[in-house]
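step=encode ok
step=design start
structure_in=
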């Protein structure tokens, strides 16, 4: 599904809001006293209309209909069902490979909405609703959107495409953890000063502490997630890509329905059937004493 000007503008707007939501604590001073536990409800209230704006803009650009909404619901339900399979063990989350493949086939606009909705549905399924949820929705939306922006969507096929998606899946899985850590790191207290956030310090110093924090606490979860995503894409990616592309071709999302009147001298199938039925009825209706039309 192509990305039109309205869809692009909506994606830029929601991504800008997300960048501000993730990054503002790095620029806040020590007296701000704010935390994501307080601003997350406001971000969630802002995110839902922006997601709706992306959907409306995509519909306006491409003319999507109920079939696309049904596809969104099916894939979001599948992603939500896959997430609990890893049970949070060592960061293993099978839903990442499906999000990458779906974003590749369905495009960045549809992919962003799919990632956000899938994470929201999985949070309801697993009881993972909290201040982190809007940030998870944004991060998964970016991950799925990035897959839709990869080059060669209409030309690259086979092993080359799987290699591209596997490489992107590995990097995106690592980046997801990197971004999500930023959501809670500025508010963790009681940690070593070498890896904790210091309000009011220069940005390069805090970023260096953040890199140390990620290396010591998060990579043990992010690397297994990336490896699992790569393995699933290489093993199942070909079949899933073919199934998704076959479904989108049959759904014909962007093909408008046209109804044309028959030209001069043409008759529709219904008119021909009616004429044959009338002829048969006329031949079968004979009066008393009349001979059949074709005597033996």
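sequence_out=
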């Amino acid at each position: 599904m192509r990305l039109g000007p309205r869809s692009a503008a909506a994606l830029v707007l929601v991504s800008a809001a997300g960048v501000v939501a993730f990054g503002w604590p790095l620029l806040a001073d020590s007296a701000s006293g704010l935390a994501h536990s307080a601003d997350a409800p406001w971000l969630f209230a802002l995110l839902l209309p922006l997601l709706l704006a992306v959907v409306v803009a995509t519909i306006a650009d491409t003319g999507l209909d109920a079939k696309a909404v049904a596809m969104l619901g099916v894939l979001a339900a599948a992603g939500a069902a896959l997430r609990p399979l890893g049970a949070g063990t060592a960061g293993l989350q099978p839903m990442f490979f499906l999000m990458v493949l779906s974003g590749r086939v369905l495009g960045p606009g549809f992919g962003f909405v799919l990632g956000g909705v899938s994470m929201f549905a999985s949070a309801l399924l697993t009881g993972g609703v909290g201040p982190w949820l809007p940030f998870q929705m944004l991060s998964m939306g970016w991950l799925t959107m990035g897959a839709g922006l990869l080059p060669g969507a209409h030309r690259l096929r086979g092993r080359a495409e799987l290699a591209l998606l596997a490489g992107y899946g590995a990097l995106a899985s690592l980046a997801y953890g990197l971004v999500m850590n930023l959501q809670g790191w500025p508010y963790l207290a009681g940690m070593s000063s070498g890896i904790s956030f210091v309000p009011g310090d220069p940005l390069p110093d805090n970023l260096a502490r953040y890199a140390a924090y990620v290396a010591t606490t998060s990579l043990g979860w992010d690397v297994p997630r990336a490896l699992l995503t790569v393995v699933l894409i290489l093993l199942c990616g070909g079949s899933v890509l073919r199934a998704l592309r076959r479904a989108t071709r049959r759904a014909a999302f962007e093909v408008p329905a046209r109804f044309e009147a028959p030209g001069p001298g043409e008759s529709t199938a219904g008119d021909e059937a009616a004429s044959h039925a009338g002829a048969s009825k006329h031949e079968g209706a004979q009066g008393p004493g009349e001979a059949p039309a074709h005597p033996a």
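step=design ok
step=annotate ok -> The CA atoms of residues 40 and 131 lie 5 Å apart.
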